[in-house]
Amino acid sequence: MSVQTWTWLLVGITFALYFGIAIWARAGSTKEFYVAGGGVSPLANGMATAADWMSAASFISMAGIISFAGYDGSVYLMGWTGGYVLLALLLAPYLRKFGKFTVPDFIGDRYYSNTARTVAVICALIVSFTYVAGQMRGVGIVFSQFLQVDIIYGVLIGMTVVLVFALLGGMKGITYTQVAQYCVLIFAFMVPAFFISMQMTGNIIPQLGMGGTVEGGEFLLDKLDKLHVQLGFNEYTSGTKSTWDVFAITLALMTGTAGLPHVIVRFFTVPKVKDARKSAGYALLLIAILYTTAPAIAVFSRTNLIETVSEKEYSEIPVWFKNWEDTGLISWTDKNGDGKIQYVAGNALDGKKPVYTEARGTYGERMIANANFNAKNELYVDRDIMVLANPEIAQLPNWVIALVAAGGLAAALSTAAGLLLVISTSVSHDLIKKQLKPDISDKDELTAARIAIFVAILIAGYFGINPPGFVAAVVALAFGLAAASFFPAIVLGIFDKRMNKEGAISGMVIGIVLMLFYMMKFKLDMFGGGTKEDWWFGTSPEGFGTIAMFVNVVISLVVSRVTAAPPKDVQEIVESIRIPSGAGEAVEH
What we know:
Helix 8 crosses helix 16 (about 400-435). The relative contact order is 0.18. By secondary structure, this protein is mostly helical. The longest helix has about 50 residues, at about 150-200. The chain starts with a helix and ends in a 12-residue tail after the last helix. Strand 2 (about 355-360) and strand 3 form a beta hairpin. Helices cover about 65% and strands about 0% of the residues.
């Protein structure tokens, strides 16, 4: 069977599974809709958390960024995995014991203020919409390539699937759907890795294959370093980022992870505090399978790309190149007229994305209007295609190629569903129920949550059709926003009983505004724009969340110390949630 037939078959089977679970697990109450009734087992919650956590950025984009950035790409591995450990050990048990459905709910009650709750709702919406933009781009990429569907229709199909199981089941439907999606995405990620590792190094375990030898007895990483140097790039195993920026990005990703509302809410779906700890441990093990494999896939795909494409005549390149060329995610411009693809260091384009003309070139290649003729590099490759195209580059069986497509969709849709639920609960529970209409019935609140999901998915679909950039880059900014806003308010709310509403509100507002300003200036060229040389303290936009977070902490502590202390009952709650009664039932409010 062809790749497209296999893809339709596997995607159809997995989508039917998701729909079936959504119908079986439909929610009948707000508690089921928000936290799956609080009765999910630790193992199931661990699998759902892993699927929620491993988004399109982890599945599609992380290995792609590492394959091009080499050593510098390790910040994503360190930051995202380290952040999950931070969340599991430092925050999750305490938040679960506090017993609130959402992060804004925790902040509103801990800081005894609807203003604080509203600020938290706004921050949750900003973080979630930034994050979901990356997921919908991932959905669009998979559909446009593997199912030969226009990207607009692909995003619409993805929106419909998420809408069904999110509307019907809320957190209950999403949880059990994510268990299935974890199984799909991890199988789809690992099978090609096993194949390619065996093919290139003779070792079926990718993590060992990456450090193994290839034909001729040369170590694979040594070979890749030489290929890089020959093409004018830095050695793959050496870094170009400053030590400070590596630290800043890693810490921003770590603290952003610990402040992500869609991951935190997962710890409210289990019956007890000790179950929250267990599910965090399960999730960490399940996440580690993918995260320890991603660097190996990055090395395999980078080596295969260079050997397959560099210095090859366009007429001789494999079919996979031309297939992906039609999506606009890889392109070549023959700048020197020799008919060969020159892949060397340098920006192939005079801009961030290729702008195509309708005409075809001499060799049948797609013509780019914004090629940078001052650079010798003739090849543009979107980082997001590396994992998806890797099985085709390695000439693996068609069913393996299709499996990767199904896995990419599972990763993107599982996280998109979790994010959309955060958006809907922020509106229905934290805004309407807690502030605008406290006497709203359970049924009406559930209706409001479903309407909010519907509106949110329309906005998410817009981002999918008009993608803002590389999936992982966009998601990294979402983590920076979470670090700048939520992390200090949550940590100080748990461990500093003197922290008051004035400190938390001023810290969150200043932190997120500062991060948004920096993002807009250096990512969107607003407020005068700027280049790498203009970065504050040499900090990239992906790492600026660290600086914004520190500013948030300082502002919060200073303001809280010059204003009135929190009420005595609030201070007593803070004392009680830190008591290590992990085996007991969580406090229900």
